[in-house]
Amino acid sequence: MLFNSLLYIAFLIAVCGLYYVAPPRNRWLLLLVASYAFYMCWNAFYVVLIIASTLVDYTVALMLGRTESMFRRKLLVGASLLANLGLLFVFKYWNFFNQSVAELCDALAIPWSVPNLNVLLPVGISFYTFQTLSYTIDVYRKQLQPEQHLGRFALYVSFFPQLVAGPIERAQRLLPQLRVEPTFNADVFLSGVLLIMWGLFKKTVIADRLSVYVDAVYGNVPDHNGLTYLLATYAFAFQIYCDFSGYTDIAIGSARILGIDLMSNFRSPYFSRDLQDFWRRWHISLSSWLRDYLYIPLGGNRFGSLRTHINLMVTMLLGGLWHGASWNFVIWGALHGGGLALLKATRAFRERIVAWLQIPEPLLLAAQLTATFHFVCLTWIFFRAATLSEAVQILRGIAMHWESPYIEALPLAHGLVGIAVLLLVELYLSFGNRLEVRLLRSPTMPRWVAYYALFFAIALLGAEGGRQFIYFQF
Questions:
Q1: Per-residue pLDDT reduced to its tens digit, 288-325
Q2: Which of 146, 280, 374, 394 has CB 3.0 to 4.6 Å from 61, enough for a Cys bridge?
Q3: Are the CB atoms for 368 and 273 separated by under 8 Å?
Q4: Which of these three, 134, 166, 181, is where a domain ends?
């Protein structure tokens, strides 16, 4: 059930209507049933994996709450890690690992005949695995008391707006909201509706329109050259941002009309001054998860420069692998890890150069924004290309092959109009509050003009066919 489908809109209306007429004490049950039904629309069998992960971490957390023995606590959290990451490895990474070992053994003339697994990747497994793991680790660290109510904990793991592609919520934020009995608030409800419409605009008017051009180039790499590769890469940068942030807006809006506030996952990432700033703005729930549960436990920046750089590389390598079982994603993560390490290593030198040259602040900002955006676009090539060899071919083409290309301009033109609107809105929002907050505080006329403009833009300019969201594959 895709967010950009009439079926989801009907589902959301039905759930919302039942939610506000149901007895407050039973609303958690309604949302839990709706969440499992929502997930089972993809593959009913795989709901078993969510239930298994829920039961493991619910039980482990209760047992952690009843013991002070450090040895037992480590055994319990280790069991949770083994169970959750074991399922993730089997369903997402086994074939990649097996194929890599087979290729290495073939190069060394060593027999290897272990078969691949013929299984589908469960939708959203990376997201809900990280979400439930953060709960168990927080209980282990004594930063959180175990949730006693199995049903509410199951809802925390499976809450349908953010189940398949985040945001990756923390138990400290979401569980308390699932215990209260929200009352209907018209302003909150309307802000949720507006966010859903803005997310649909990003997805259908911008991302899905740009995907036509991006797929044409990246899906047939040998027939294109430097300019088309470059245009497709820029287009993909906005496609993936609008696709993923559009999903997040719909998720946050859907939760908000039910009286639940999900965390922000994006803050205008292409306006970042450097790569560290980019990761504070892009997929915030994942970057903060990697920081709190991987980078800091590895030592963070507490043990000298070399150790800090190693920790950054390990964190971003695993962050890249989290996105997909492919060497392309590993390289994507390595480039970001290397970029972050280089920024840290050269910070003092760069500050001295800027002071010596006396670069005006507006010029410095423009240079930083431009450099960061283009570095991110460069790394998107490895993220989008189907294979490593195609990524290398695209890079080589951008560097050397600029023959007269054939460019299908119409898909790009549609997308560029949407990008212009997006950038104007995000530039406007960079000076203050969120979009829905500003509109709710504005006079009635501008607010309803915005509603109607978004509605007709989606209806008239949105791509048809209900394309799947990119991050569903992760």
A1: 999 999 999 999 888 888 899 999 999 999 999 999 88
A2: 146
A3: yes
A4: 181
Q: How far apart are the first and last CA of the chain?
A: 16
- The Cα–Cα gap between 183 and 20 comes to 8
Question: Annotated catalytic residue: which of 224, 323, 336, 414?
Answer: 323
Whether omega for the bond prior to residue 405 falls within 30 degrees of 0, making it cis, is no
Clarify whether 323 is annotated catalytic.
yes
Do 104 and 196 share a domain, yes or no? no
Distances (CA, A) of 159 to 33, 52, 326, 422: 10, 16, 29, 29
Find tokens 């740009």 and name the residue: 210
How much is the pTM?
0.90
Buried b or exposed e, range 318-353, using 16+ CB within 10 angstroms: ebbbbbbbbbbbbbbbbbbbbbbbebeeeeeeeeee
Give the domain extent around 299. 187-473
Closest CA to 255 of 208, 191, 326: 191
Domain end (from 165, 181, 197): 181
Q: Is 289 helix (H, G, I), strand (E, B) or coil?
A: helix
**Angle at the Cα of 224 from the Cα atoms of 223 and 230, rounded to 5 degrees:** 160
Could you tell me if 32 and 176 lie in one domain? yes
